[in-house]
Amino acid sequence: MTQLIDKPPAKELPNEQLIELLRKMMLIRRFETKAAEMYAKQKIAGFLHLYNGEEAVAVGAISALNDDDQLLTHYRDHGHALARGVEPGRIMAELFGKETGVSGGRGGSMHLFDTEKSFMGGYAIVCGHLPLACGLALANQRLKNGRIVICFFGDGAVNEGEFHESLNLAAVWKLPVIFMCENNFYGMGTDIRRVSAVIEIYKRAAAYAMPSKQVDGMNVLEMYGETLKAAERVRAGEGPSFLEAICFRYRGHSMADPEAYRDRGQTERWRELDPIITFRKTLTEDGVIDEGAFQTLEAEVEDIVNEAVRFAEESPVPQLEELYTHVYKEDS
Amino acid sequence: MTQLIDKPPAKELPNEQLIELLRKMMLIRRFETKAAEMYAKQKIAGFLHLYNGEEAVAVGAISALNDDDQLLTHYRDHGHALARGVEPGRIMAELFGKETGVSGGRGGSMHLFDTEKSFMGGYAIVCGHLPLACGLALANQRLKNGRIVICFFGDGAVNEGEFHESLNLAAVWKLPVIFMCENNFYGMGTDIRRVSAVIEIYKRAAAYAMPSKQVDGMNVLEMYGETLKAAERVRAGEGPSFLEAICFRYRGHSMADPEAYRDRGQTERWRELDPIITFRKTLTEDGVIDEGAFQTLEAEVEDIVNEAVRFAEESPVPQLEELYTHVYKEDS
Amino acid sequence: MAEMSFRGALRLTLQEELQADENVILMGEDIGAYGGSYSVTKGLFDEFGPERVMDTPISESVVVGAGIGAAMGGLRPIVELMTINFSLLALDQIVNNAAKLSYMSAGQIHVPMVIRMASGAGSQLSSQHSQSLEGWYAHIPGIKVVVPYTPRDARGLLKTAFNEQNPVIFIEHTALYARKGEVPDEDYAIPFGQAEVMREGADVTLIGYSGSVYQTLGAADILEEAGREADVINLRTLRPLDVDTIVASVRKTHRAVVIEDDWKFGGFAGEIAAIIMEEAFDDLDGPVARVCGADVPMPYAKALEQSALPNPQQIADAALALF
Amino acid sequence: MAEMSFRGALRLTLQEELQADENVILMGEDIGAYGGSYSVTKGLFDEFGPERVMDTPISESVVVGAGIGAAMGGLRPIVELMTINFSLLALDQIVNNAAKLSYMSAGQIHVPMVIRMASGAGSQLSSQHSQSLEGWYAHIPGIKVVVPYTPRDARGLLKTAFNEQNPVIFIEHTALYARKGEVPDEDYAIPFGQAEVMREGADVTLIGYSGSVYQTLGAADILEEAGREADVINLRTLRPLDVDTIVASVRKTHRAVVIEDDWKFGGFAGEIAAIIMEEAFDDLDGPVARVCGADVPMPYAKALEQSALPNPQQIADAALALF
Ligand SMILES: Cc1ncc(C[n+]2csc(CCOP(=O)(O)OP(=O)(O)O)c2C)c(N)n1
Ligand SMILES: Cc1ncc(C[n+]2csc(CCOP(=O)(O)OP(=O)(O)O)c2C)c(N)n1
Ligand SMILES: [Mg+2]
Ligand SMILES: [Mg+2]
Predict the structure, then answer these.
(1) Looking at the predicted structure, is the pLDDT value of residue A332 above 60?
(2) ipTM
(3) Is C190 inside a domain boundary?
(4) Domain residue limits at A55
(5) Which residues of chain B are modeled with pLDDT < 70?
(6) Nearest CA in chain A to D42
(7) Distance between CA atoms of C52 and C24, rounded to whole angstroms?
(8) Which residues contact residue A139 at a Cβ distance below 8 angstroms, ignoring those fewer than 6 apart?
(9) A330, part of any domain
């Protein structure tokens, strides 16, 4: 049955949970940086989209939800998977294309899946997963299982037709889903101002009479708190909610992107708001952690990530005989 | 070159133009009723969607535009074609599937085309023509030819993804296009309240920062006046405009629809607002027409429609040898 | 055996499944209050209410996508897409999500859903409403494609679709809805991948599916008059395809004609022809012939439309040309 | 003759056309400031500005639809759809508007536009980003489908596309972009419907297009070592298809193998095989063989992906099996 742990409001989070938020962000940052290294070493291929700079969005939002609330996201999905507690080793193994990867090496970076963790996948067709989020929410609504759905997507996805269709359907059917837009101001190399008639994305939810709000995506506590509030409304049956998290990706769109379309200075300015540095500062000022505790965390995530790489390295590749397995589910 | 006849505001319309508005509405009504008869006699086949009750929308809006402003509409397209001055005989011939039809008998009721009249077509994929309207408007903008585009569609079309994509693109590129939504409260048998999160459709344009307004679609002068204002803004380069015309179709969605989903009383109440009856009343009260003049108009449209049927009847069907003609334009 | 229309056979089966399992839901445009644009779901809205028979906005993509999500979440959605023409708007959901989720999640996710859609031409609906694109669906690994011809097929195959763990595209030719036929009284299901030989003959194999089986049977009559006996195969499903039945027949007759409403060039008939060649080359007395729709957007005018569709005489002529 | 990459040949041609006619516009996602996701349009934004090289929102359907409308209105739009995978979102516009407008308006409207898209697999992009659906486009009457292999093809066929009065789908295999080849210095255009025989041989006909010509040529090398000489045909366009060149070769060699990256079942290779059978049945010594992509959503893992794609050895083996 549903596990409905009460989540405390942001202000009442106990110290260990505050530290856990920091630790998760640090894990994501370290993981992503390591993934970039592994890409350079050609251990990882295909497209690789890193989450550096956006850690607070996934960690704050996902920590505010129950473990069995379903989560869907786009191709930039490592951060969400790690925030949900998917095993780092199995994520890295997926990037390496190994049989032990979360998707058996079939999906790769853009298609992490771990249904045991209610991590319902990373999707590579921009906006193509929003309709699925509606359907999962419909199932939860019917099955009355108390679960809600959170769906992450970017500012670029907002201009797809499916965004509109999904928000309308969710609103009409009062589906229990949170739409979480990660507004990092760019869809690949395109500045949002050049392609969106209304750049304050949360305002677009008004076209569906959906409650919506802009949130500071560089602030993990704000992400946590606002997601918690949205989740309460959604879980209470009041229908879908929309959140726009303002954030920034430090790296190029994918590893192939030389970022010719924007100047370094912009990224530097955002780095001053770095979610990990600022949250560490807050926790230090509030006496929750000290330098030693931080070093311990750093060592810990370093170990986890190194162990993930070792696991990935040592894992076997999929067997060629398995090429046709999973095209269909055989009748049971 | 572009013909830029100055259109007077609604209040200053000379009598002959007022009478012309009435005459066009009467022509559409008579034409549609005759088409229904011809359908019953199996002279017309396929789907037939009638415009009865909505005459003021097409006539008011289209009369406010220049003859070379391009017009696109959906499958319920006879009214728009007649309002634009497409020959009734060639429309009827199209419904009869004759070679002399506006689309050579290839298109049928849902696909009237008359490019000489800048009537750029009726389209049968709900919302599929909105993107084309954007493209035509883009061409006009680039060619600086002073032409604008008007695009008609229904309340049901608003929930398609292409609605969203088109409005956003038009707004971002400031395209010279008027989006004219005919809100007759039903998409086939589905009440707008059951499928649209926000039923005041004009409000949805706010998601694209697009000027928009609700208009009385039963009032031909209001349709004329508001379209004229929108056209002025659009022609001046201020970008797209949105109008929501409140109206009602008296008949079923198509000839196949028994209208089991709504009660007759609703239609009867709308009939009291009938655009032809009320406008005739206004013109009579204002001394613009008298009973005799009205009778003359009636006789006139009766003749036109009968002549249209005769023309259609007597026209030849397309030659079977022509089956492959027009699949491609041969290189010139 | 009861006589029943194709439409009635579908409706009865939907009704039974709605009764049997409360997780079965129907979703689609105008399937509820309106009764379905081809009346297949008529009465079900009244019987099961708006929570089970869900009218949707005109938003094909999210309707299919929500069906996929609902299936992932434990429901058994049956999505009606009104017609195959509109399914193009949902094709990304079908191709990139429904068909691939099992594979790309390495079997963690399954999508047990049925997507129903009307297909075919013949009633002067013109080019945007007259397509027969079932061959496209047959091309996609990860889904199954069902093309019933008789009311018995309709019921038996829909039953099987309900028991599938994979996404099923269920195609209903509009010309069949009103046609009647015998349907067994007892519970039965027709497995996917089993074609039906509708008529036996030693001289030539005629292969059709969905609506085109009708014209094919007509051709067999003409051939009989001409002294030639035809095996007429109703494929019933395109993916999986019953290659064994096709090949066994061709080994017997040495001649084959494939019939399809869809455009010939690049259509599914070419696949069948190619398979026959691969599997039974030495048994063939001549090339496998194809009688398909003309390669044109469908015209409205009646005579033009008719001339663009396969007819019995054409099929018979193609068969006779093989002798 | 200049040596030039496939990408460079495309870029040069786009640049020339932009220079030659101010009504030529480029539209697409990230083709401007970003330089194009495969760098084909790099530099054009700087040279021609945002009004000629238009970055669009991520809205495939309206981008293609606006291209159609712009063509109707007198511009010459070249729309880039980034990849064929995303083109599914615009398929309704292509199938129901671009391809049909001329016919359903009885020739009043034409849609002179080019839709460019990258296609193909091989760089571990997994299932949603690795499709080769050009066969689907080839199935649609009203459009033309271009599948260049060499840089020379790319430039010559794109030139022709610019002179077309009909919508053209222009497919660029991602594995080709960086490949170099000779491109004539003088102005030239390659007409649609003219395949190129890349290599001549009397023993077997190998038919490929787009990226797969590379593997096909590799197979011809293997065959040569085995003492068999192959005709290698690069189709260049799928619609129109150069049936004459294919058939002439098969009449000479009596054996044929069709190679395609796309899924085999229901794919375009079946059409080619069926046409060969129809046109040259008596010349065939055995069935036309097909070597195609495996019928699976494309896996990410390198070895799995490679095993799902046609390779030279497989093609050579299929050819040798015909002797
Ligand atoms: C339908 C579709 N169109 C285009 C692409 C190519 N593409 C991949 S990511 C991307 C940008 C998306 O930007 P955004 O939604 O803002 O997410 P971000 O990458 O910034 O996190 C594009 C255009 C795609 N994958 N799918
Ligand atoms: C993409 C698509 N989906 C569904 C249909 C079937 N259909 C035709 S008209 C219609 C209702 C449209 O309603 P609305 O836009 O309100 O226009 P109205 O008929 O009321 O004028 C539907 C669902 C279609 N033609 N195209
Ligand atoms: Mg972004
Ligand atoms: Mg309506």
Answers:
(1) no
(2) 0.98
(3) no
(4) 10-313
(5) 1-5, 331-332
(6) A260
(7) 7
(8) C69, C70, C72, C73, C74, C75
(9) no
